[in-house]
């Protein structure tokens, strides 16, 4: 998977990056919901598979102390160039979060299609990592598409896959994604935002 994304960034074929987080009003409402019952400052947020940092920057603007992690060096280099001096990005693997340098005590996790791209063993590893780094009462927003048997696009993940990989968390909402800011292959495969809370 890393090879495919490395090539995509090198040749500029990154529709997920061009879509941009700010274009999806429904996504902004989901973040509003995350923040409604929290006191300021909001706390730490981890953007899993942050790419060039579009969503990480969105979180920062909203008042989160956000950290982005991605294993594609070129994407992280771009994120750092586009962000302010206080922004923080880590080159690392979401399946090896402990010891990756992102830190601990996160109150919120955002995953916009990263989990959706992983195989089962890697999803379990991601689940173990976020659980180990989470504060009590932490929440997560996880974007997945319906499972589908294509080799050209992400395999997708249904609710059962989410619950299997994150047994310490409970799904408290499953909302159809608006899709306005998503690449076309995500829009056409029933994208869903799962909201999870650490049990």
UniProtKB/TrEMBL annotation:
Task: Pinpoint the Methyltransferase domain residues.
Answer: 46-136
Q: Which InterPro entries match?
A: Methyltransf_25, SAM-dependent_MTases_sf
Q: Which domain of life does the protein's organism represent? A: Bacteria
> What name does UniProt use for this protein?
Methyltransferase domain-containing protein
């Amino acid at each position: 998977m890393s090879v495919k994304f490395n090539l995509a960034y090198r040749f500029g074929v990154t529709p997920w990056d061009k879509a941009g987080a700010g274009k999806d009003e429904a996504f902004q409402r989901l973040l509003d919901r995350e923040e409604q019952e929290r006191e300021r400052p909001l706390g730490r947020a981890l953007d899993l598979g942050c790419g060039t940092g579009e969503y990480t920057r969105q979180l920062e603007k909203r008042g989160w102390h956000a950290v982005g992690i991605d294993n594609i060096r070129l994407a992280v280099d771009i994120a750092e160039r586009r962000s302010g001096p206080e922004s923080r990005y880590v080159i690392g693997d979401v399946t090896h979060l402990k010891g990756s340098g992102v830190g601990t005590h996160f109150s919120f996790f955002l995953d916009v299609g990263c989990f959706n791209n992983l195989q089962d063993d890697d999803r379990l590893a991601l689940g173990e990592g976020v659980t180990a780094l989470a504060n009590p009462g932490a929440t997560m927003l996880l974007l997945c598409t319906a499972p589908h048997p294509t080799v050209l696009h992400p395999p997708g993940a249904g609710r059962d896959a989410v619950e299997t990989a994150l047994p310490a968390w409970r799904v408290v909402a499953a909302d159809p994604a608006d899709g306005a800011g998503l690449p076309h292959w995500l829009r056409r495969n029933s994208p869903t935002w799962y909201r999870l809370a650490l049990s």
